[in-house]
Amino acid sequence: MIKHSLLCLFLLCNLGIFAQTIIIKDQKTNEPIELATLSSGTRLFATTNNEGQADISKFKDVSQIEIRSLGYKTVVRSYEELKIDGFVLPLQPTNLNLDEVVISASKWRQSSDDVPAKVISISPKEIELQNPQTAADLLGISGKVFIQKSQQGGGSPMIRGFSTSRLLYSVDGVRMNTAIFRSGNLQNVINLDPFVMENTEVVFGPGSVVYGSDAIGGVMSFLTLTPQFSLTASPLITGKATARYSSANKEKTGHFDVNVGFKNWSFLTSISSWDFDNLRQGSHGPDDYIRDYHVQRQNGTDVVITNDDKLLQIPSAYSQINMMQKVRFQPNEKFDFQYGFHYSETSEYGRYDRHQRVKNGTARYAEWNYGPQIWMMNNLGISYNESTSIFDQMNIRLAHQWFEESRIDRTLNKSDRSINEEEVSAFSFNADFIKSTSGKNTLFYGIEYVLDDVKSVGKITDVTTGITEAGPSRYPKSTWQSIAAYVTDEYKMTDRFTLSAGARYNQIILDSEFDTTFYPFPFTEAKLNNGALTGSLGGVYRPSDTWVLSTNLGTAFRAPNVDDVGKVFDSAPGQVVVPNPDLKPEYAYNADLGVAKVIADVIKIDVTGYYTHLKNSMLRRDYKLNGQDSIMYQGEMSKIQAIQNSAVANVYGIQAGVEIKLPQGFGLSTDVNFQKGKEELENGDTSPMRHAAPFFGISRLNYNAEKLSMEFNFVFNGKRDFDDMPNGEKSKKEIYALDENGNIYSPAWYTLNFKGLYKLSNSIDLTAGIENLTDQRYRPYASGISGAGRNFIMALTAHF
């Protein structure tokens, strides 16, 4: 009995020695801070759960522990100091941080003090206040990413003059881009669920050293919720449930997630559902944006019907469901296993810009819809934390993604419905390592392998008989492979100056087999095997705690993918794009210079200038096939074009922001973005770049109290005249306003918006807002659908 008691006492003492929990709270509200980070060097790291708790046993005897959380002042404490304070630490709120923990720049958690590239973060708190309907809208609330939409079920980010396949998406460290990401506008980002984002980061400028092909204009990194363990003997059961309604599209949204954590095992389940009706645009603005009719099939005939409400954009309704399941197992302090399953599926939805096209004075199309868009990912991550001769930490990631998408179109009063269905099976393997070779030198390095298997099927269905027969596919049967190795060296020359240099070598292999049944291509296959070497060099200098100066030089590349090499589609009425098997990679050369300054702990100014030169740019140009410059396509003689390495492009701009901390919980901020881009035309002239957005930005007036957060903001977008329009946009009269000469242009616009969040109790939040208070009718540049008119939003969230 005595031995048993002594054993229990020994275990309890050891538990006290080896398991120590810290609680981090908001200094003003005394509420726990979730996702606060504690770190020391490259090996020691911890994150607080939703109760503000973290196990810091491994930090024992550490003299400097950095504690950070977005929106709070960074503090540095020793383990002994935390012990003296009873392992309870209040953090002081601030909007004027010059440093934070970022992951996207290197795939490892590091201080932004050491990152020469411009990186921004969007926190879950901001997401809850702003209530973005989609992940595209989530990026837009930053005020630094421009969002184009061709339909309500869409959202194509534009960053520094680049878009679509020249930007890279990363989800939990896995490359989302596939071999059919196109140069036209993309809507794949809507597959992601804003409700499950633990952190969203955007890296501006080249990211090819770490991420490979496509990371020219920037990298958008989405980190979803991490399962949390229990730090006590009882299971940790946490989660949230949200219900939301928006008036402009009669949005009905529901979300639920729950985390069940034990000592070594944790499980996280999430499900979200959205239902959007047709989107109503505003009352005050260009009449050119009004399309007051839609097409219905009635009794075997296409009928053009006048809308009861001319401001409704029909068809734009759609629905979506997302599910996520994560499992985490941590057998000891060295290993951490995480498995994640993601599934997203949309309904069929109309591509609204195509529904606005006319022919012979009436609707051109009876149907032009995207079929259900499906994305599924299985993701296994293995982390090993143990100092060896070649690494301090290792992350291995195995992932498989499945993509399904389709296009359905039928000309008015024609019986043939064309259907193109695409499937991509994407496998990826990443091994990333970090090693501190001295007190000042840290190496980040890794290897990557990606395989995309592309299948494409074409069908033609007679809507009167229901008979379906084979039709031309959009893409050839293809495989796309990427093999790469990279290294980045981060060297702290002094406590105030950090220098970074990196390089990556990438080999891209593409094999395509063309079906010549429907089109007489002069080839039956395309084989590309291209190597690409990219590099970066940058530095961050902090003359004082209130100054940050950074510069970054980098190269990036985009290798031809299946969409570039093998696509057949109608780019505009009377034009058809055909395959080109002779493409080569395009390269970008970029320079950044940034400065940030905090004045008297009240004002923060942040300015970044950049310049990018794109060489061997892949652009659509006139082309000949078998000596012909035109072919019959879908019953119409169409001019032949193809993607070609035929141009250079240049883009430059400034991103600037100012924040002012006012008394009594108020704050004021403004972010503006100016960019100009020129690309070379076939005849040697130049044209504005298609994806260089007009001047845009946002101004905010914030108020934060103990239970109440409010924001009044002003979103604005500059004008683009006809002479400043890209050549490729000038024929798209259906989506733009017309000036007094009948030429297209993109008018300036603004919206006034109010958002508020009130904590009804410790567990229930009420958020509400009014968007577009003055009911403006506006259409973001290059978009095919107008933004929402006056929109009332209400959401209720229960945390448990």
TrEMBL record:
PROSITE patterns: TONB_DEPENDENT_REC_2 (PS01156), TONB_DEPENDENT_REC_3 (PS52016). This is TonB-dependent receptor. It comes from the Bacteria. Keywords: Cell outer membrane, Membrane, Receptor, Signal, TonB box, Transmembrane, Transmembrane beta strand, Transport. The keyword Signal applies. Residues 327-773 form the TonB-dependent receptor-like beta-barrel domain. One of its GO terms (molecular function) is siderophore uptake transmembrane transporter activity. It is a multi-pass membrane protein. GO terms for biological process: siderophore transmembrane transport. InterPro entries: Beta-barrel_TonB, Beta-barrel_TonB_sf, Plug_dom, Plug_dom_sf, TonB-dep_rcpt-like, TonB_rcpt_CS. It is found in: Cell outer membrane. It holds the Pfam family TonB_dep_Rec_b-barrel. Belongs to the TonB-dependent receptor family. Residues 113-219 form the TonB-dependent receptor plug domain.
